[in-house]
Fold this sequence. Notes:
Elements: H1 4-13, H2 15-24, H3 31-34, H4 38-47, H5 52-58, H6 63-71, E1 75-81, E2 87-93, H7 95-115, H8 136-141, E3 148-153, H9 163-171, H10 179-189, H11 202-209, H12 211-222, E4 227-231, E5 234-239, H13 245-257, E6 268-271, E7 277-278, E8 281-282, E9 288-289, H14 291-317, H15 325-346, H16 351-362
Antiparallel strand pairs: 1-2, 3-5, 3-6, 4-5, 7-8, 8-9
Amino acid sequence: MTNASAIIEFARKNKSALKNHFVDGLLSLPAALEIIEQHQLNALYLLSVEMPIDLSSFLKTGLLPLESIINNPQYTHYIIRKKRGGNRHIYVPNKKLKAIQRRLNYFLQAYYLMIKPEEVHGFVINPHYTGSHCNIVENAKAHTHKKHILNIDLKDFFPSITTKQVLNLFSSPVFGYSDQIATAITLLCTYEGKLPAGAPSSPVISNFICLNLDADLNAFCATHNLEYTRYADDLTFSSNTAIETNTLLDIINIIQKNDFNINPGKLRMKPANRRQIVTGLTVNEKVNVNRKLLKKTRAMLHDLSTNGVETATQKHFKKTGKVKAAHEAKFLQRLEGYINFIGQVRGKSDSLYKGYKEQYKQAFKS
């Protein structure tokens, strides 16, 4: 099942069986449902919602409490300074609303997996898949050995997505919800007229909002010998022929027609004789870790092995005097994370990764 309207019709026709499966744990499903994968079953349950009582049952929240949350959403606002200047506004929902958004995210992710474009690699999660087939490494692989790479960043990604856009999404044939249900879910997932950064449901909703953008860019690239991938707000285009100015302007025009703007300061065009970066990874010859991260990891390992964890932590966090155990734990967690990331990018059989892993292990032997 790939057609959205057909998926929705199937879900609505089998609503009773789906509800019984998820609410009561019964296994008396039609034969067609018994052979569907778990994430598809989750998607069908999401799409079977038609009435307020369905939504209440789906969200495991009473009608009156749900109405109260919709009418009076509670968020805590934080401001984070960006490295390159400016502020990032984070809105964290309260406990009850966050639980609802997490549940919506779980089922929205399942549905997105059924209809997602192959070129999208960010904010894609399959809770029933032990590996990770959508990540920055897979996103970067599409652009190796290319003579020209174009990087475009979408400006103010989450806050640029409006409540109206989200409402139109849930009312569209992609979901087929009634005005009442579409409005309720929209109000549960938006705040102050936009998609809030900090809400668990925002990333997957942004992917749904980008369905038209991805389709338009895919169609354009297919006729212009371009490879295209998107990782959240990071768009990458590559080709073995020069990407002309008119081509760039056409791409920007498509982006703007889909209600997004580019960040001019992050637009990059790199030929093969320059270091080509895609989602933080170099792709000139193969997907590889940025040299700065390799250098930092090597220095942290050297300090740990030579001077011990306390001195290494002091140097890493630029602290004097005795450091807290929490800081030491954070240092070790960060170092181990860097090493594991190198293994993810270069492969677990890579000699550099294996050497770093062994050096980390040896640092704790007396």
